[in-house]
Specification:
GO terms for molecular function: ATP binding; phosphorelay sensor kinase activity. By secondary structure, the protein is α+β, with helices and mostly antiparallel strands. The chain has eleven helices and twelve strands. The protein is rod-shaped.
């Protein structure tokens, strides 16, 4: 039965049956305790009554020379009337009846020094046999008998009552347990129904949360929180696919156009062929960079970036990146002001990419003979910042809140025709900073240049050693 319950039944039935079983066991133990307590109590009263009566009777006739011959039927009958449900029989030394109460006539009564129960027809009695050797010249026995039929019938009736009560209690526990369990588990059923009805196109539904602050309420809150995350993830994925499709449509269309041009005129005209090949190469490089950025963002969405962390000097890393850009952009004035030496535990390759994104962005939107300034310093014992400032055209207040959004392109005045980007660089930069629990901010106004400020905690290594 329990194997069936465990494998095939609903959880409400499992809990109900378990609850009913435990309740039945509790009732059984209580009823058993009640029965044994009352049985022991009644037995003690019977023994006490027989012993007290025996002592009383013997004490009254302790001065008689031969009490065996003294007792007769009338005397025993008289004594029996004074003691409720207690009767007497006197035996001589040979065990033959000398005298007895009328109630005991024709009864086969055992001779026992201890109190012993016996039956006579429908009656249940208890007897104790007392030798009268302490009396002078006396050789006989006094038997004290008590009718305990009422007490035994009471105990038999008690067993029946307790058994019926246990059965009724078990049935009530099953019904109450089932309805109580069903009501208690109703929030889980709501979670199940909601989960069954929700699809990727209907993630806005939520469970109604009310009632006491118990485990089921926490389950509903957790489920709603999970739906919030799923909804954001689906929206982000949908937007990501839409943006990626939009960004890839243009270079694919350009490549297709030039392929058609090659097919039509490329065989006869060398200048057309060269132009088409150069354009296709350029668009292919652009697509390759776009795909790499998309994959990097996708990895960051799924989990944390794959990091190969080590202790490195952030100042030297900035100098290394500045040197790379000075070789490529000789007309841009790069200035570096370092106020403090920063040792940082992290992935130097990720931070190289981060710095390249900001510098590349600054160079794109800074005119020839322009100026770019980089600063680095500590702001607290456990934090540091670095900033990249350019004197380009700046960013309008309308565009400023969206500069870290994927594929977002600010006003065309900030985009040099020969340096058009995909709009993913700053989104990647923000994701790198976020992965190190840092903050990133931008200060800019149209016509006044732009300043990016990155604040990072001074990380610790695996041995919890600080690298300030």
């Amino acid at each position: 039965m329990f194997d069936f319950v465990n494998k095939k039944s609903k959880i409400s039935w499992k809990i109900t049956i378990l609850y009913a079983f435990m309740f039945m066991m509790l009732i059984f133990l209580i009823n058993l305790s009640i029965y044994f307590f009352l049985s022991s109590f009644i037995d003690d009263n019977i023994k006490k009554s027989i012993n007290n009566t025996t002592e009383l009777v013997l004490s009254q006739f302790s001065g008689i020379g031969d009490p065996v011959n003294f007792f007769d039927t009338d005397l025993l009958q008289q004594i029996s009337r004074s003691e409720e449900n207690i009767f007497f029989r006197v035996l001589n030394k040979d065990g033959k009846v000398q005298a007895q109460s009328k109630y005991l006539e024709e009864m086969d009564i055992p001779i026992s020094a201890e109190i012993e129960e016996f039956r006579s027809g429908t009656k249940v009695l208890a007897v104790k046999t007392i030798p009268m050797n302490n009396f002078v010249f006396s050789r006989g026995y006094l038997q004290v008998v008590r009718d305990i039929t009422f007490e035994k019938n009471f105990l038999d009736f008690l067993i029946i009552v307790l058994t019926i009560a246990a059965g009724i209690g078990a049935l009530i526990s099953v019904f109450l347990g089932y309805f109580t369990t069903k009501r208690m588990l109703s929030p889980i059923n709501k979670v199940t129904e909601t989960a069954r009805e929700i699809s990727s196109s209907d993630l806005g539904r939520r469970l109604e949360v009310s009632g006491p602050d118990d485990e089921l309420k926490k389950l509903a809150l957790t489920f709603n929180s999970m739906l919030d995350r799923l909804e954001k993830s689906f929206k982000r994925q949908k937007q990501f696919v839409s943006d990626a499709s939009h960004e890839l449509r243009t270079p694919i269309s350009v490549i297709k156009g030039y392929v058609d041009l090659l097919d039509r005129w490329g065989k006869e005209k060398k200048d057309v062929r060269d132009e088409a090949i150069e354009a296709i190469k350029k668009e292919t490089v652009s697509m390759k960079q776009l795909m790499e950025n998309l994959l990097l963002l996708a990895r960051g969405d799924d989990s944390e970036f794959k990091k190969e962390e080590e202790l490195f000097n952030f100042n030297n890393l900035i100098k290394e990146i500045i040197k790379e850009f000075e070789l490529m952009e000789k007309e841009i004035d790069l200035e570096f002001a370092e106020e403090a030496k920063i040792d940082f535990y992290g992935d130097p390759n990720l931070f190289k990419q981060l710095l390249r994104i900001f510098l590349d962005n600054a160079i794109k939107f800074t005119s020839h003979r322009g100026k770019i300034e980089i600063k680095i310093d500590k702001i607290e014992t456990d934090k540091f910042y670095f900033s990249i400032t350019d004197n380009g055209p700046g960013i309008s207040s309308d565009d400023l809140p969206f500069v870290f959004d994927r594929f977002y392109q600010a006003d065309k005045s900030r985009t040099r025709k020969d340096n058009k980007g995909s709009g993913l660089g700053l989104a990647i930069a923000k994701q790198i900073v976020d992965s190190y629990q840092g903050d990133i901010d931008v200060e800019s106004e149209a016509g006044t240049g732009t300043k990016f400020i990155i604040i990072l905690p001074l990380n610790v290594d695996e041995d919890n050693n600080s690298y300030d």
